[in-house]
UniProtKB/TrEMBL annotation:
Membrane topology: Multi-pass membrane protein
Organism: Chryseobacterium luteum
MF GO annotations: nicotinamide riboside transmembrane transporter activity
Protein name: Nicotinamide riboside transporter PnuC
Main subcellular localisation: membrane
Transmembrane segments: 15-35, 42-62, 68-84, 105-124, 146-166, 173-190, 196-213
Top-level division of the source organism's lineage: Bacteria
Keyword Nucleotide-binding annotated: no
Keyword Transmembrane helix: yes
Keywords: Cell membrane, Membrane, Transmembrane, Transmembrane helix, Transport
InterPro entries named among the record's database cross-references: NMN_transpt_PnuC (IPR006419)
Length: 225
């Protein structure tokens, strides 16, 4: 696979509007991560714009299963926005901390439930992508390749990461780093070169976010002591 096949060929049949929409969604996705690093509540408005754009794109491509997952991302962003608004003194920035043992246990349960939910969505994906018609659709997981199974895992990782972020817990970055890194080869396999580069950028930004939030908490602890 050469660079042309990876970065140009997949977009040859796209319209100008489709390319613009995907680029806009990617831009707001990166902007959302930037705001998150800065502990700025604008992480959520930017993230909601990005996920809603992808909801529209995926719906129009008939990928309703993936579309539903992005609807969940949007709902989680609204939940996070509400929590950050309540916990922000200046209504813009928030304080961060490590998760409690109870929260980590809950995150483990959430991860398992997310695996089950996403696997269930993939099981019914032929029915969902067939515009909710069972006629001609064969249910099951037979259509999944290794990239799809990785997608099940990374989606669950991201859902837990979003929950930790909503709670302003530093652990959220660990989940973003792992999930984003896994997505790089997965997107190359799907011949989505531009998206793979985007996830590379996300991985680097997530590492930066992890270090930034740790430093912020350490500085706060030093001031208090």
């Amino acid at each position: 696979m050469n660079l042309y096949d990876l970065f140009v060929k997949p977009y040859e049949n796209y319209s100008g509007i489709q390319i613009l929409l995907e680029a806009t969604g990617a831009f707001f996705g990166i902007l959302s991560v930037y705001f998150s690093i800065k502990k700025n509540i604008w992480v959520y408005p930017a993230g909601i714009i990005s996920t809603l754009i992808y909801v529209y794109i995926l719906f129009n491509f008939g990928l309703l299963g993936d579309c539903m997952i992005n609807v969940y991302y949007t709902a989680m962003s609204v939940y996070g926005w509400i929590l950050w608004s309540k916990n922000s003194k200046d209504h813009v920035h928030v304080e961060v901390s490590w998760a409690t043992n109870k929260e980590r246990m809950f995150a483990g349960v959430l991860f398992i439930l997310s695996l089950a939910l996403v696997t269930l969505i993939y099981y019914y994906k032929p029915y969902i992508d067939n515009k909710f018609s069972i006629e001609g659709a064969s249910l099951g997981l037979y259509h999944l390749d290794w990239a799809n199974w990785l997608d099940v895992i990374t989606t669950s990782i991201f859902l837990v990461g979003m929950w930790f972020m909503a709670k302003q817990r530093i652990e959220n970055w660990i989940f973003w780093i792992i999930g984003d890194f896994i997505c790089i080869p997965m997107m190359i396999f799907k011949e989505l070169g531009i998206t793979s580069v985007q996830y590379l950028v996300f991985t680097i930004m997530a590492i930066s976010g992890y270090l930034n939030w740790k430093k912020s908490l350490k500085e706060k602890s030093t001031i208090k002591s």
